Amino acid sequence: MAKRLVIVESPAKAKTVNRYLGPDYLVSASMGHVRDLPKSKLGVDVEHDFEAEYRIIPEREELVARLQKMAEKSDEVYLAADPDREGEAICWHLSVLLKDVNESIYRVLLHEITEKGIKEAFQKVGGLDQDKIRAQQTRRILDRLVGYRISPLLWKKIGRGLSAGRVQSIALRLICEREKEIKDFVAEEFWTIAAHLEAANPPSFRANLVKINDKKVKIKDGPGAETIATEVKKLPFILHNVEFREKKKTPPPPYITSTLQQDSFRSLHFPVKKTMSVAQRLYEGLEIGDKGLVGLITYMRTDSVRVSDDALRLSREHIAENYAKEYLLSKDRIYKNKKKAQDAHEAIRPTSFDCDPERVKPYLKEDEFKLYSMIWKRFLASRMSLAVIDETEFDIRAGKYQFKAKGEVVKFDGYMVLYPKPKKEENVLPKAQAGEDLKLLELETKQNFTQSPPRYTEGSLVKELEARGIGRPSTYAPIIATIQGRDYVIKEKGKFIPTEIGLYLSEYLVTNFPDLMEFKFTARLEDQLDRISEGDLDGLSYLKSYNVLLEKDLDEAMKAEGIKAKGGIPLEDSCPECGKQLVIKEGRFGRFKACSGYPDCQYKQSMVRKEAKLLDEDCPECGSKLVMRHGKYGAFVACSNYPKCKYVKKDTKDTGIACPMDCGGTLVRKKTRRGKIFYGCSSFPKCKFATWDEPIAQACPDCARPFVLRKNLIKGKPYLYCSDEKCSFKQSVEPRKIWEDQNSK
Q1: What Å distances lie between residue 523 and 6, 400, 516, 659, 667, CA to CA?
Q2: Residue 91 and residue 108: Cα distance in Å, rounded?
Q3: Annotated catalytic residue: which of 299, 327, 372, 679?
Q4: Could you list the residue range(s) of the whole structural domain that residue 485 is in?
Q5: Residue 679 is among the residues annotated as catalytic for this protein
Q6: What does the pLDDT look like over 476-518, one tens digit per residue?
């Protein structure tokens, strides 16, 4: 009997799913999207209802052909890509390509990759969600319209290599506007006064001056602070009032994508991209000893804090078994979703309470363990009882001067046994009664300055984008990667700083595309996409209205004067040689700063970042540390003691594959002077065999020589051919298959 074919995105996910489904199912991977708009042109027919010209991605042609053959031989096909808009779109593209060979195609939603989750999902198979597909297509076409219509205008008006993006440009605007706030910020001086006091009972404590004559204190300078301090020292301190309050603290809700990204960056210092990559592995499944492949967390792209009834029950059982009864809630706590939450999936949580982080730690990499522990603790804490805090506040008077001191004691830790508050300096207050005289031990005056708003980090940028309703958490990682990769921003000590080109580009886009660069407009667009995915809005009508605005802004921007006539992007800096304004230009080796007075003044400075990175490796010739430098032909490793030591590390790597000339040598990965990679014999110059193509550790079935990987430059398809020129064997192959074969050995 023919097998049932199941298609997921990745080989890792396929391996886990296959383990639970058994021999009647054949599980394969699509490697993500199999069709997309063409890269060489817009690919959207604006005049005919924005009809999209989807094509099979060149690298996926052979894979698609293989999936079609497998579908033809199968009774049924189950499309099990991720349960979100992108996953629905992947399934739709696959269904279009497979329906001619098999009409029995079903959609399966895998919210967790566990035996129970998979079997339940296969009992609820259905059809594709056409509304979700329309929403994803609308978003894809909008992104294409912005990128492919605005970018050419930027090349014409400003310079080559620039790009705009629907959310990318908004993220850049946030960073640039924050930089302007920092630049325009003027620090103001202010002073604070604190008294170190002692009551009848220990310990001593600290109280801050908060009011003078019942008005909020504001001390502008040192002389003013000194005048107050001199007067206060002469006055008696009396404990005017003691106030006791019991505060109950509620645990935060389970993680959603954005809060996981923010906490991971703040606590683990994981970039957003790394957080999503590690979470993907935890979701798809890892080898856990005798348990085999296990998906440890639920789907990690979600904006809902909802938790299934089954998970609530199991978490209660786990808490009851492992903690005192006081930690167990009498009634399940229900968190409310934000207004814009799609609620398609549960919150991010552990899939099994048998997989305690410490129990599975031996099977996880360090990063996987850290992230899994965070998710585990946050979820269980959200199911535990409140923490109870006893807060004490002293109201202290010294004549017209009012001081306050606050202290708190944890009466019952509750959820904080798993999820404690961030540590801060504690001010423990003594037992004291109102009317008690206090002894002044010391009066401290301190100069302070108001602080400018901080630059964005990855975590705070994600938080700001989410707060404004811009983009989706699943898109934040590629957005951050794009603005860094195009040198619009750089990261310094974990904080984003816009480059000159980034600042100018953002200002240009805001000036010439005011509608599309407006924060609220971009946020409303996300709401419209949600409405399309829910069937409440027609995607075509929205595309038409959006395109009207885009055309209007494009027409206005086309009429505006560009900067090419000015010789480059103008900067505020002056030429160090002649004093004229500096500009940014494009050259053969990238962007550079030059004098606007060229050719009279020929000053120029490369903008390609060439800082040397110190490595934890010693020079074999002089013992100094090695550094990574950037040269004309790319990065290289050399001695930090240059020019006294001119050692340069050769960029070679032995593949371990025997040279096909039978000389006893092996093939070594090398670089030419211009940085191009080739493979040559380790016995050079005795043996001069060399090839541009990558050797593969497989034997040719015809003559047993090593295979070599070659890429067909016309169609982009790789294939294997024998390293022996006398042998004519050749075999087409899927790139991923090569990678898996290499790594399995």
Answers
A1: 37, 51, 11, 59, 55
A2: 10
A3: 299
A4: 138-185+454-562
A5: no
A6: 988 998 998 888 999 888 899 998 889 989 999 999 998 889 9
